[in-house]
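Dear colleague,

Thank you for sharing your sequence with our group. We've completed the structure prediction you requested, and as agreed, I am returning the results in plain text so they can be pasted directly into your records. Please verify that the sequence below matches your submission; if there's any discrepancy, let me know and we will rerun it promptly.
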Amino acid sequence: MIIAEIGINHFGDNERAWGYVKELCNKDIDAITFQVTDEFQLDDGFYEQVISYVHSKQKKLGIAITEIDKVDILNRYGCDFWKLLSCSTKDEKMIKKLIDTNKEVLVSTGRMDADALNFFELYLLSLDYNKDNIGKVKFIHTQLNQDTTQANLKRIDTLRIRTKRNIGFGLHCEDVETLYTVVAFNPSDIFFYVKDNKKDEFPDNKHAIALEDLDNVLEKLKKLKQSLGDGELIIKEDKLE
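Please find the predicted structure tokens below.
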């Protein structure tokens, strides 16, 4: 999936949040996410309406969440998937709560070293769940550093081999062209933050893509994904004039 993250870049303004949603629903993306934390909160009723609207546009809506008491109501409203922020990857109650919804849980690994990843995997194994539940857990490689040289994209393959799970990528680099490089690593999902202008200082700012630039970014991503091909050699003779 190609996933545009509004996060909390709406500053808790319902009208502004709707502006993001309506514009993004006209973009060539698969899903939108909001971040539900104790900062810049939107009304619960907002999410009920926005999930219905996003579904009517044949797109998905995910929630990055730290507020465990909000999980049940957002699940009832029809949230499609969850993003577990790296600050919550040792929160056993939250992990279990999200898995219990039987929806995809995409886990940010931005603060997960080898020990933390091992803890998480062992905790999953300790749960008395069938493979369908556990199989819906995926990881997102997120390097929480805006320096492009620290993106460490090879970790996508490392995580894929180690966990035997689908691995996505979350952009936190200031240089958006990192997205174009990551295509070669074939992530299952690509996450990036968006902002509605280039003037304000947003919670997720330097690594967010301005909505006015998004069409160009998406078009380039689409072409580069197509350039990977299927691995089979096609011999085609070009006529030279």
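Summary note from our side: The beta strands are 2-7, 31-36, 60-65, 81-84, 104-108, 137-141, 167-170, 190-195, 209-210.

Kind regards,
the structure core
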